Amino acid sequence: MPTPQQLSLSVSLNDDATFDNFYAPEGATNARTLALLKAQAGGQGEPFIYLWGQPGVGLTHLLQAAGHEAQDAGLSIQYLPLRELVGFAPHELLEGLEYLDLVCLDGLEVIAGKPDWEEALFHLFNRLRDAQKHLLVAAVQGPQELPVALPDLRSRLQWGVTCQVQALSDEDKQNALRHRARARGLELSEDVAHYILQRVPRDMNELFCYLQRLDHASLAEQRKLTIPFVKKVLNL
């Protein structure tokens, strides 16, 4: 039976989560956020970044992409999905993370209002700051709206740079779907992308899950992504 610390170290990153396949139109807010994250993941830039946005905008993708980028730069990282780890002892789980170059905490909202977690996170924040290491966190609310009870932690969460990840318009979602398809080596025409977007839930996580199904089916059957083929695979 692994200890909580051993469990945390076993958390792996999704291979598909990269900065290159995150669609951020040039000049838009998300593009500026992406530049900040790339700098931090490279060991430069802001020591503390707080990301927030509604579910489905890609917070988990960005945190895992930062982890991949840092690893590629030869840095040590730890990504922790707090939704999966909230039941463990936080002091044990967060112990020693200040020796890493980058710590990514995903789903901060799940620990808000939990005294043991808030205290452990407050101390981790201080240890990372003293060690001059980098911290990246994500939540569905901004730092002022997050229902954190510990005043010292609440103030710490407002120290760094706060970036809201913006939801995409329908046109941008269509472009994002085509962008991700190209990253997978798939040719997804504008007409087919529009057809998909009009018939499935528009949450980006679900859209990319549909794209993954299409990728596997296209490879297995050696078929291009036409509207009839998409209709058949996705039962639309």
Automatic annotation (TrEMBL):
Entry keyword Disulfide bond: no
Pfam families referenced in this protein's UniProt entry, alphabetically: Bac_DnaA, Hda_lid
GO terms under biological process: DNA replication initiation; negative regulation of DNA-templated DNA replication initiation
Every Hda lid domain range: 170-234
SUPFAM superfamilies: P-loop containing nucleoside triphosphate hydrolases (SSF52540)
All copies of domain Chromosomal replication initiator protein DnaA ATPAse, residue ranges: 13-163
Annotated InterPro entries: Chromosome_initiator_DnaA-like (IPR020591), DnaA_dom (IPR013317), Hda (IPR017788), Hda_lid (IPR055199), P-loop_NTPase (IPR027417)
Domain of life: Bacteria
Keyword vocabulary terms for this entry: DNA replication
Annotated family: Belongs to the DnaA family.
Name of protein: Regulatory inactivation of DnaA Hda protein
